Predict the structure.
Amino acid sequence: MFRNICDGTIDIARRAGEIMLDSSDPEVMDKGTKDNHVTEIDLKVQQFLKKELLALLPGSTFVGEEEDDDDRSSDDYWIVDPIDGTTNFIRNLQMSVVSIALIHSGEPVMGVVYNPYTDEMFYALKGNGSFRNGKKIKVSDRKPENCIFATSWGAYDKSGSSETFRISEKIYGICEDIRRMGSAAYELCKTAEGSIDLYYEPILHPWDHAAAGFILTEAGGIISSVYGEQDLFKRNSVIAANNPDNLEFLRKIIIEEKERKTSQ
Ligand code: LIP
């Protein structure tokens, strides 16, 4: 149904990536805490994406990370993170992506995530599988002891970080290794391609995971909140895995640690 606009969305994502690459030494502003940043380029990219995507799909509305842009009044609306991995962008760590999801009748139907530094274009259309640069991708079949686990410890709100570090320590003792890449959308896309296998972030927003979470499910993976909340806008914590058994392996460890802490 939306196949005809997927190519247009991919082109728009690529052009947004060019805006990122063409920028240098952007002005940086803080958002609420000292560790939560936004740059003039985040704002410029979001304004570009909003204009182009609304023109691509007349009648659609737009939800973006920046400037409290939240219009879900249409049956078709976009959820956009103009630069996922803003701190990486500011520090030129070259691991930031443009993230675009399309929601139709309350369900994701298309996801596009573009890393302009590596020219990796991840995309998926409902029922059609997931792709990276035109090549079909799918999750790994690794067991927990062979998994790489991507996580963060709550960069913008460190009040819960000691719990999250304890969770990481438990998982680290079982799995192969841990990665903290600083971009939820990129980490979830790398899970969709089978490079990463398990994922947990204690605090995320819909724009961080809407597109990449959909790409992951179309690649055979599974994504949820720790307590199983399915609504994108109510899913604060996010867990994801290459298969349902490994998702429950993650969920069990996380909930045990949360319940241990509350019982003390
Ligand atoms: C970031 C995520 C990252 C998370 C950060 C932040 P932003 O998104 O991609 O994984 O740990 O707290 O939410 O703010 O760079 O778009």
